[in-house]
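Lab notebook, bench 4. Continuing the backlog of folding jobs that were queued last week. Each job is logged with the same field layout so the records can be merged later without manual cleanup. Today's entry covers GNAT family N-acetyltransferase, a 196-residue chain. Filled in by technician R.K.

JOB TYPE: sequence-to-structure
TARGET: GNAT family N-acetyltransferase
LENGTH: 196
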Amino acid sequence: MTFDLKWREATKKDTVYMRSFKCTSAAATARGTVGVEHQVQAFFRHFAIAETNRAKDQGLDGRLMIAEDEQGIAAAYAHRLLAPEEYSAELDVPADSPLRDLCFLAVAERYRARSGALFGSAGTAGAMADEAINEALWDIRERAPGAPRVYVTGLVDYRNTASMRMLARNHFVEISRGCPPPTGDNRLGRWMRVLR
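JOB STATUS: finished
OUTPUT FIELD FOLLOWS
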């Protein structure tokens, strides 16, 4: 399923515009994931542009992309390179292959069903999320055209079953549960996909 979206890189000029992005739902409160979803929403609304620019300044190729439809921001994602000293013990990445962190990905609340589940215009569960992650993976692969493969990793709270289903549908595998310091959060699982 394809939506009528225009993807573009967000810039500092979008700082105020990003505050309008709503990716939480009332159903999140009932599911007990409201904290997780509000953290993601807060990232996009208040920190995404600054964090992306900081990653760029550190040579980590930070990217913040937004999709727009006729109502505003429909989806967003952020990713950046991980420096070798940031690799977790469970990550065995060859020296010729970059490792990128898919920091955050979210779709607008208007693309959710009443239950809070994600849906597409034809009611397909997760269609917008799938489109957003596929756009992110394409963008990630394009950032390393000469690399034989690109490793993509991300953290997901185990209570966020919709995100885990979306990752599994898109060929990610969970490689660890619980994070070592500095994150140290046993509610997070690390997921990975290798792009060739």
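OBSERVATION: The chain is about 30% helix and 25% strand.
SIGNED: R.K.
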